[in-house]
Automatic annotation (TrEMBL):
Residues passing through the membrane, by range: none
Taxon lineage: Bacteria, Bacillati, Actinomycetota, Actinomycetes, Kitasatosporales
Protein name: SnoaL-like domain-containing protein
Gene3D superfamilies on file: 3.10.450.50
InterPro entries, per the entry: NTF2-like_dom_sf, SnoaL-like
Residues of the SnoaL-like domain: 4-123
Length: 137
């Protein structure tokens, strides 16, 4: 199925909005990005799976100064499409207060809610080796 251009733009902006909200500390606006029962999987970072907006907020607050000061979301690609659900991948770049940075891949399930879209599942994968390990010996 072909996703309408308006929906592609809406999904891309939704994914981008996450970085703006978290960096501004506007955690009370999570419902603009995620479904109430969102599953946020940060197992690749040793933090397990968080379920629901309150758990997401609690984890962000618990991490405190350990959070990046900047989340940059790029390279959004919408891969699987149905009328009510899409799978999207994007790249995340987190800049820490000391200037160090890290890279991640977001794998999102985005669902249509009313007249908009929300992320119902996000898996965050750490990028630790070039070429995903290809050619490393």
């Amino acid at each position: 199925m072909e996703l309408a251009l308006e929906d592609r733009l809406a999904v891309t902006e939704l994914i981008s909005l996450y970085g703006h909200l978290v960096d501004a500390g506007e955690l009370d606006r999570w419902a603009e990005v995620f479904t109430p029962d969102v599953v946020y999987d940060v197992s690749d970072f040793g933090q397990g799976r968080l379920t629901g907006l309150a758990a997401l907020t609690g984890a962000a607050l618990a991490q405190g100064a350990g959070n990046p000061v900047a989340h940059h979301i790029t390279n959004v690609v919408i891969e699987e499409v149905t009328d009510e659900r899409v799978r999207a991948r994007s790249k995340g770049l987190g800049v820490m207060a000391d200037g160090s940075c890290g890279s991640a891949t977001y794998v999102d399930t985005v669902v249509r809610v009313g007249d908009g879209w929300r992320i119902s599942h996000r898996r965050v994968l750490a990028r630790r080796v070039p070429l995903n390990g290809l050619g490393q010996g």
